[in-house]
Structure to design on (190 residues):
């Protein structure tokens, strides 16, 4: 919790883009696309618990 | 706590700009993460306030339940505005606009019972 999630997402983003570049230059465009998709899905999986926890607190806070 | 929120905001902006420059999807993910963290910190210190306001409301007796709906309206606008902001950042302003319209209509629908009780009391007076 805190700032490190932003660093994790940034790290995944940079690694995936580098991997994508390498794959693109070695002629495998589709695998590059799949790698970036996998990175995105991984990040979304990290974000999901934060989002659900946050909406639970908002729900209890404002008794929605 | 304040400085941590400022740090998160600045950091998130820099990283998001960096990723948006490369037309990378992570930019939006970082924007979502940063705004969620900031909302989480506002929730941390708002929760203490929430309990006090609820006790105050219950002590006030009959007027309390109307203020509860006021509290609910506050929550709805807050969440809708947060999500609309993220959607606008990501570039699709139409979704954000639809979300804001939905939030407004939801708040209006919440205020209907209060209006009806107001009408009854006024007509009873006249």
């Amino acid at each position: 919790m805190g700032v490190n999630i932003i660093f994790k997402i940034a790290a995944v983003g940079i690694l995936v883009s580098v991997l994508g570049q390498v794959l693109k230059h070695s002629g495998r465009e589709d695998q590059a696309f799949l790698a970036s998709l996998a990175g995105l899905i991984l990040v979304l999986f990290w974000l999901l618990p934060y989002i659900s926890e946050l909406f639970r607190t908002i729900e209890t806070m404002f008794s929605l | 706590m304040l400085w941590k929120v400022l740090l998160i905001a600045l950091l998130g902006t820099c990283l998001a700009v960096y990723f948006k420059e490369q037309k990378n999807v992570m930019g939006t993910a970082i924007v979502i993460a940063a705004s969620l963290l900031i909302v989480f910190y506002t929730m941390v210190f708002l929760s203490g306030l929430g309990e006090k306001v609820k006790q105050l409301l219950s002590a006030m007796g009959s007027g309390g339940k109307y203020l509860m709906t006021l509290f609910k309206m506050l929550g709805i606008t807050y969440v809708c505005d947060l999500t609309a902001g993220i959607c606008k950042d990501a570039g699709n302003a139409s979704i954000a606009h639809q979300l804001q319209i939905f939030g407004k209509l939801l708040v209006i629908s919440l205020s209907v019972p209060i209006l009806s009780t107001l009408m009854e009391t006024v007509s009873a007076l006249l």
Observations:
- The two ends of chain B are 54 Å apart (CA to CA).
- Chain B has one domain: 2-125.
